[in-house]
Design a protein that fits this description.
With 162 residues, the chain is an alpha+beta fold. The protein contains three helices and nine strands. Strand 6 and strand 7 form a beta hairpin. Helix 2 crosses helix 3. The longest helix is centred in the middle third of the chain and has 24 residues.
């Protein structure tokens, strides 16, 4: 096969995945989220005690995910151990969210639901999901697995302990 000026023609080209919730455009500064009240300033979303008077209004990426029910992270907890320690595990999860959300307003729990004796926690970001999964694994041991999807724009974590 003649390579010509283009090199090998039989190689696969990996397509770059696009995360529609990761903004490539910059919001005008300052912008206040109409959903949660966080402020886009200095190139990032942050919590501010006082919101600017004359600010643009938009929905932040986390509030868009929540509205559209498009979780970036899913943590599934299961097993007999969960039945006896569910409340304390959920308290740990809420504490991890509180700590992460204080520094990173786009990392939030969207929903916690019970399904077939298991608990699923849906998050707006992969970092919070990984933080929660690691905290549960570290505190309660058990089996743990993590799987990235969509070019690392989403994550699914499974934790189980009998």
């Amino acid at each position: 096969m003649d390579k010509g000026k283009f090199g090998r023609l039989d190689r696969l080209v990996k397509e770059k995945r696009h995360d529609p919730y990761r903004s490539t455009e910059k919001f005008p500064e300052p912008t206040v989220c109409t959903g949660c009240g966080c402020v886009y300033s200095g190139g990032r979303w942050a919590w501010m005690e006082e919101r600017p008077d004359k600010a643009n209004r938009a929905l932040c990426p986390a509030c868009r995910r929540i509205r559209e029910k498009m979780a970036a992270g899913v943590i599934r907890l299961s097993g007999r151990f969960l039945k006896g320690h569910g409340k304390e595990i959920l308290n740990l999860i809420r504490n991890e969210e509180k700590a992460e959300k204080a520094e990173h307003p786009l990392e939030r729990i969207m929903e916690t639901r019970n399904e077939d004796g298991a608990v699923e926690v849906l998050t707006t970001g992969i970092h919070l999901a990984k933080r929660i999964g690691e905290a549960v694994r570290r505190s309660y041991q058990g089996s743990y697995g993590i799987e990235y999807g969509d070019g690392e724009n989403s994550v699914r974590i499974e934790w189980h302990r009998d």
